[in-house]
Amino acid sequence: MQTAQDILGWSVAEVWAGAAETLAQTEYTQPCLYVFAAILVDELKKQGLHPAAVAGHSLGEYAALYGAGVWDFTTGLRLVQKRSQLMAQVTGGAMAALMGFDRAELTAAIAHGSEVVLANDNSPDQVVVAGTPAGLQGLKEKVKIKRMVPLPVSGAFHSPWMAGPAAELAALLQDTPFADAQCPVYTNVEPQSPTVAGEVLRQRAIAQMTAPVRWREICQELAAAGYRQAWEVGPGNVLAGLVKRTTPEIGVAAIDGWAALNGKVIP
């Protein structure tokens, strides 16, 4: 926590315990999530619990790479800090979560337009789209969607509209050491090709900000590879729910704090 404060210039503990409006700001949310997950990763390893494979959703991929030994805590946090600052500066785009839709119809509508892309493919029945406000409204008019929930974000993340910030982050990633991972990493950009190669992981990290998060496919690839137990390491249990809905054959648990680490989830 002290190392994080020295790097960030503010206290993760104070922001986490403070006003929800502050924590919800991208430049605070992302570093807090990374630090929280990294602490839990360290505690798991102290118990002799090392991952057989890792994956992360969007920002979570940075924590996953830390857990796989690709970089140390400070290197990852500096990258997350820069990423969060760049994303916080983006304006003009919009994102929305969609539930209750025909996937083929949605895919066709997106393919025939130019103002909306699929940003997060989270589960068979839930996705997030990104684009212009007009594009999202047009999509709602073209496709039958049971529920469309606008997300409180400033930009169209994981889309071509992030090209400017992505180029700035790419320069930093190019200068960052990437060690080979200690276990396979299933990445947002190429879920079908897990890898331990540091240079490959670098190129996928560079592509991540403008590419969709293919979480549904990650779940399917993990199941196909024979994995039957997944732990969500970090606050909450959203990803555990997505894994359960996509691949019910994989058992899931949320390692979200001290209680989980000390017997209530981990025996």
List keywords for this structure.
Alpha-Beta Plaits, alpha/beta, Malonyl-Coenzyme A Acyl Carrier Protein, domain 2, four-stranded antiparallel sheet, globular, about 270 residues
Helix amount, in percent? 40-55%
CATH topology of the largest domain: Malonyl-Coenzyme A Acyl Carrier Protein, domain 2
SSE arrangement, N to C: HHHHEHHEHEEHEHEHHEHEH
Overall CATH class of the largest domain: Alpha Beta
Q: Which class of secondary structure composition applies to the elements? A: alpha/beta
* Strand element count: 8
The CATH superfamily of the largest domain is identified as Malonyl-Coenzyme A Acyl Carrier Protein, domain 2
* Strands in their spatial order, largest beta sheet: 3-4-2-5
Choose one word for the global shape. Answer: globular
